[in-house]
Each structure stands twice: as structure tokens, then as C-alpha cells.
């Protein structure tokens, strides 16, 4: 069955891949690594190897069993475009997404270079949204890579936002999610960074979603910006 999630911009998660490795500053306090450690301690079978990357062929067809249309975050516990996930396995995941037009699939990666390389070999049906994580100015090149991908919806996840994102080129980018880091050792997010991204989105007519302020108690800090919530989604 699907795993319901508290992530505000999606409905359920589907993890045909679990485990990952860190590649940039945004990965430092990875929530998925923390969760995998807990699941391993609880004796959950799929996490017997902790956060070591694993593919799960038995989960490939899972979305086909869901009758009700759902918004699905693909691989919340991994990265589909990790170098150790074979192209053949990625194609299997895409085949399932292609054959389930009733669902909307949200794929997110930090490996934008591999995404750009493999994109021409994949079938980008309109129900597949493709995003890249962009946590600060150091990784703005991921936006340029994403722009080359023929997805109907292209989006940025600026979470955890750990630095400013100045003068982004949002041409061809349909949606931006912004959020602060949460949990132990979380790094602070400055309001000025968030307000600047909001202004850039307004200028580019790009949908803006503010997920959270973060911190060690994200429920207490909440998700209001300018005394309101921003829940914009691409059409």
C-alpha cells in the first residue's frame, strides 16, 4: 500500500528505491538518512542495510493497484537518478508512471547532470513532474539542467534553504517550493532569502509554495509568511 505523508505538497510516497549518498551541502542533515536509521533499529525488512542504496522490484507495479487518483512523491527515501540506479530500473519506474495516467508523480533529484543525460531516453508523459533540489547559490546550475528536461511541469525544491538564491532564471520553471531545515542541528533560514524568492516567482509568474520555517520544532515555527500561507500549485 502507499505510505501517506505529512509533506504538505504531496499526498503519498512511493519508494521503489531506498538509500542514498550525500553530494552537496543540502544533504548534511538528511531527514531520510535519520528515518532509515530509525527503521533499521525497528527491524523493518527493507532497511536492514540502513541507508545503503537498494532497488525494490516488488514495488515497481504498486501504483497500478491504487484506484483513487493520487499525487505521489517518488522516492522520498532516495534519488531515482543516483549513479547506482541503473537506466533499466529507471525505465521500469517510468513505465509504471506512464501506465498510470490517473496519478500525478513528483520526481525530485539532486543529480541534475545525470537527469539531463538520461532525459532523452525516457518517456515523459504529462503526469510526471520533474524537480531538482536547489539549496543555495552554489547549485544553481541544477536549474539550467532541469530546463533541458521535457517534463510538463518542472519545479524547484529550495529545501533546506541554507543560503540565498539570487537572480534565478525561472524561465520554464513552473513551481518553486521553499522550506527551512528541521530536526536536530538544523541550520537557520533567513526571511530575506524567502522574500526574495517570492518576488522572483511573482516576476516570472511561477507558482510559489512555502512549506515551513523549520528549526528544531517545526510545528511551533509554522509555515506562515507575510501572515498567510502560500499553497500555490501548478495547474
Automatic annotation (TrEMBL):
Pfam families: DUF5131 (PF07505). It comes from the Bacteria. InterPro entries: DUF5131. This is Phage Gp37/Gp68 family protein. It comes from Thalassobacterium sedimentorum.
Amino acid at each position: 500500500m502507499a505510505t501517506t505523508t505529512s509533506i504538505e505538497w504531496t499526498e503519498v510516497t512511493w519508494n521503489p528505491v531506498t538509500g542514498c549518498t550525500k553530494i552537496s551541502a543540502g544533504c548534511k542533515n538528511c531527514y531520510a538518512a535519520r528515518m532509515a536509521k530509525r527503521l533499521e533499529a525497528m527491524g523493518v525488512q527493507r532497511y536492514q542495510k540502513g541507508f545503503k542504496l537498494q532497488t525494490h522490484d516488488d514495488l515497481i507495479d504498486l501504483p497500478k493497484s491504487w484506484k483513487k487518483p493520487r499525487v505521489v512523491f517518488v522516492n522520498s527515501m532516495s534519488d531515482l537518478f543516483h549513479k547506482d540506479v541503473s537506466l533499466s530500473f529507471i525505465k521500469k519506474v517510468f513505465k509504471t508512471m506512464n501506465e498510470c495516467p490517473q496519478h500525478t508523480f513528483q520526481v525530485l533529484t539532486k543529480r541534475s547532470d545525470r537527469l539531463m543525460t538520461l532525459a532523452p531516453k525516457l518517456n515523459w508523459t504529462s503526469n510526471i513532474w520533474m524537480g531538482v533540489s536547489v539549496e543555495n547559490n552554489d547549485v544553481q546550475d541544477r536549474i539550467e539542467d532541469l530546463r533541458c528536461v521535457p517534463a510538463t511541469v518542472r519545479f524547484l525544491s529550495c529545501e533546506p534553504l541554507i543560503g540565498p538564491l539570487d537572480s534565478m532564471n525561472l524561465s520554464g520553471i513552473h513551481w518553486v517550493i521553499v522550506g527551512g531545515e528541521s530536526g536536530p542541528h538544523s541550520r537557520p533560514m533567513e526571511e530575506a532569502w524567502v522574500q526574495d524568492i517570492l518576488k522572483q516567482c511573482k516576476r516570472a509568474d511561477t507558482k510559489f509554495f512555502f512549506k515551513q520555517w523549520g528549526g528544531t520544532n517545526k510545528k511551533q515555527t509554522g509555515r506562515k509568511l507575510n501572515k498567510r500561507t502560500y499553497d500555490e500549485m501548478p495547474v
